[in-house]
Structure prediction request, 293 residues.
Amino acid sequence: MTITSVIGALIMGFGAIFLFLGAFGILRLPDVYNRLQAGTKCTTLGAFCTIVGVGIAQPDWIFKALIVAVFVLLTNPISAHALARASYKSAVPLYDGTVVDKCREFGECEEVGGAAGASESDAGGEE
Amino acid sequence: MGKHLSRYVATAVTLFCLWLLLTSTSNVQEVLAGAVLALLVAALGYKGFTRRGLGIFSPRRLAHLLIYLPVFFWEMIKANFDVAYRVVHPRMPIRPGIVAVKTELKTDIGKLFLANSITLTPGTLTLEVQGEYLFIHWINVKDEDVERASELIAGRFEKHLKAICE
Prediction:
């Protein structure tokens, strides 16, 4: 039981708590976009802390752990952005309490499917 | 031609450093194999990696990166406590909305890093990027105005990212 393994275990525990809170947020929040907020932030920091914690507890693995952690840090927000953008474009409704939708005001994020059914017909179909 | 060589060398150096970190060994044979592979892969893919060449390793940019990283990590930890507070609070104090943010960054890579940073900071998620506007899903809208929202959301990062990416 050395000091590095104690620090590593503490960091891993910190990450595990945030992973749990992210899962809890996915259950509690009302719509896709709010759920993605909880899912992205908590899983990114949770996974980052867990992996770096393993690296600190086992110093041989620190560089590999850091590379995996940085990879998660760079790719996780991009996947969240892709999911949110795809949901918006296929007309997944926003939560009732939503106060403002600049995306519609600016008219730049055109929806692909109709409001009734999010069909997946591509743009070349009707033009 | 000189520009291409510079881009090629920058890609190869980056790949070789990645190999050294991944294997974390000082065995001569493995380091040589890594060097050969880095040169080969860089020849295949350097066009997609960087337009600037060896300029990406300039000391000024690395210094700004070193200032930017602690700011970013601090915002990320704050973001997680923010989400934890909203999720655990019995009445769930959320006021979601989509706001527009105007950015001064011109390059694609700058916009990518700004969007990533915004996604990982308290209560914001990048939904769409169109030209100089970013559309952000904000879990607790404090200001609907474009200018002030830009300052609140992107102001913290833009200064450093401008120095790093442009």
User: Anything to note?
Assistant: The helical segments of chain B are 2-23, 28-45, 59-88, 108-119, 146-165. Residues 59-88 of chain B form the longest helix (30 residues).
